[in-house]
Design goal:
It is a single chain. The chain is of the alpha+beta class. It has two domains: 152 residues, dinb family like domain (Four Helix Bundle (Hemerythrin (Met), subunit A), Up-down Bundle), CATH 1.20.120; 97 residues, Sandwich (Jelly Rolls). It contains seven helices and eleven strands. Strands 4-5-11-6-9 form a five-stranded antiparallel sheet. Helix 1 runs parallel beside helix 6, helix 3 packs across helix 4 and helix 3 runs antiparallel to helix 6. The model has no long low-confidence stretch (mean pLDDT 93).
Length: 269
């Protein structure tokens, strides 16, 4: 059960952000006149949330076994005119409904997971835990239609913990850095040199976010003290290195932008 709670919580956090990043023309595009667009699929997920919030709530106060009454999926998508409703409005509905569903799930007792449910159209009787799992799988089915796979909603696409970085670096026997995130021109490394920093100037602009330790930073002919929590910026092509650093020194390294670096913004305009 905790697996379903964790996944729904993750989807509530990640899905709206990634859906908004889909180009507008892709959101509105219909594979054929009888198929839903991605926006209409989102609307269908709202309808599913409406009906299933009622089911997940009513099962606690209704006679057993609880009967699932189907709803007119295509008719509701048309009636709600999701294709011509703002994305923000639909996403706000989806988020609020699923946050409340998550709240209801958290209140179930172990005994309530065993409550019986009749599904007439399938001629089947299941328990509440089965229905919760089915709701999550139904949602994932439509996520795959929207994104092509569930990879987009994988937390590793947007978050890496310090513990994960240390674990991944420990697997790199011949290197003292590991790449952990990539998006477009940007990629993030975790770097922990031993004894001496042998790096040379890089083709992209970069940021260092010192994760632990302290020492001296050589930058463009000058030396500066640094410590954990400091942020250091190095434009592309500039000579730099870490010197006299403590044994626990490690840093996040963020590379971004075109080769040769970005041009400074002219603030005089």
């Amino acid at each position: 059960m905790n697996h379903n709670l964790d996944l729904l919580s993750k989807y509530i956090s990640l899905f709206p952000y990634h859906f908004k990043n889909i180009p507008r023309e892709k959101i509105l595009e219909k594979p054929n006149p009888k198929k839903w667009s991605k926006k209409e699929i989102l609307g269908h997920l709202v309808d599913s949330g409406v009906y299933n919030l009622e089911r997940f709530t009513n099962i606690r106060v209704s006679p057993q076994p609880f009967e699932i009454i189907p709803y007119p999926q295509d008719g509701l998508v048309k009636a709600n005119d999701y294709q011509n409703t703002s994305v923000d409005q639909i996403l706000n509905l989806w988020t609020a409904l699923n946050q409340q569903i998550l709240n209801v799930w958290k209140k179930y007792s172990k005994e309530e997971y065993k409550l019986k449910i009749i599904i007439p159209q399938m001629n089947q009787t299941v328990d509440l835990e089965w229905w919760i799992n089915d709701y999550r799988e139904h949602m994932e089915h439509h996520f795959k239609q929207i994104f092509g796979s569930l990879d987009t909603l994988n937390p590793i696409d947007w978050q890496v913990t310090l513990e994960t970085a240390k674990t991944e670096l420990s697997k790199e026997a011949q290197k003292r850095f590991v790449t952990l995130l990539e998006h477009g021109s940007m990629y993030v490394e975790y770097y922990a040199p031993i004894g001496k920093d042998l790096q040379t100037p890089h083709e992209q602009d970069e940021l260092y976010v010192i994760a632990s330790g302290s020492g001296t930073f050589f930058y463009s002919g000058k030396r500066h003290a640094f410590k954990a929590g400091d942020v250091l910026f190095v434009p592309a092509g500039i000579e730099h290195r870490f010197e006299k650093f403590s044994a626990d020194f490690a840093t996040w390294v963020i590379f971004y932008g075109p080769k040769g670096g970005e041009r400074p913004v002219d603030k005089s305009d």
